[in-house]
Amino acid sequence: MVKLGIIQTSTFSSNEQGIDKVSKMLKGLGRKETDIVCLPEQWLKDNRISKFEKEFVNFKTIAKEYDMTIIPGAFYERKDYRFAISSPVIGPKGEIIGRQEKIHPFDYEKKLVQSGGKTKIFKTKCKFGIVICYDMVFPDVAHSFVKKGAEVLFSPSRIIRRGIVPWHMYVQVRALENRVPILAVNVQNQRFGGKSVIVDLIEKEGVMIPKIVTKLSGQKAVSKNFDLKKYQKSRITRFSDSRKFS
């Protein structure tokens, strides 16, 4: 059994205010023995972060204190002579253990960043992948993570209000296609619509059904227990039935 969580944030006047507020929420989830927590994409005021290690020093301390993995979100990060949108992962020992880059920059982002080219698997309390916002639209991204061994997917996102309904549909379909739960987390303010979701899978008489088991309103932190082994048999069967064709 693994306990997985999300934190839906609002808008903050500064990075310092945001980090301070969210640190308290992270500690609350830590006291509930949450194993892995994910935050939204670009929820800080200054989203171009030069050094993740410095910006998230509080999160690193909390991760170590509570033996928790923290996905702080996804942000613009300078890498050599370019920018990428990167999602760092802080492991339970308090160190950044890797980054997932956004594969498909959205709209105006294409002019600002270089696309990521690889899906990476992280392993702490379980194996997981990170689908950053617009990457959820593309089936091959989620499928690549799961083929590489991901047991669950996290999705730091920033979805405008009119995009919430299709976003929820994409998340449920990706969960169904790949036989994995997905925790997708959004920003909530005047422009972005919140309604972060945890999608689980329910099997009834041999039929697998995706179900939104948690939907958030306002600034909130939640976590849920998962038995990730229960999806394995269905996932193996689904992938073994897949055939290449043209």
Low-pLDDT regions: none
Give the end-to-end Cα distance, rounded to a whole number of Å. 41 Å
Secondary structure tally: strands: 13
Instruction: Name the average pLDDT.
Output: 95
Output the helix-strand order.
EHEHHEEEEEEHEHEEEEH
Order of neighbouring strands in the sheet with most strands: 7-8-9-10-11-12
Judging by the overall fold, what is the CATH architecture?
A: 4-Layer Sandwich
Number of helices: 6
Rg over alpha carbons: 17 Å
Description:
By secondary structure, this protein is α/β, with parallel strands linked by helices. The chain has 6 helices and 13 strands. The protein has one domain: Carbon-nitrogen hydrolase (Nitrilase/N-carbamoyl-D-aminoacid amidohydrolase, 4-Layer Sandwich), CATH 3.60.110. α5 links the parallel β9 and β10. α1 packs parallel to α3. The radius of gyration is 17 Å and the shape is globular.
Give a concise summary:
The protein has 246 residues and is an alpha/beta fold.
Keywords:
29% strand, 13 strands, 6-stranded mixed β-sheet, 246 residues, 4-stranded mixed β-sheet, Nitrilase/N-carbamoyl-D-aminoacid amidohydrolase, alpha/beta
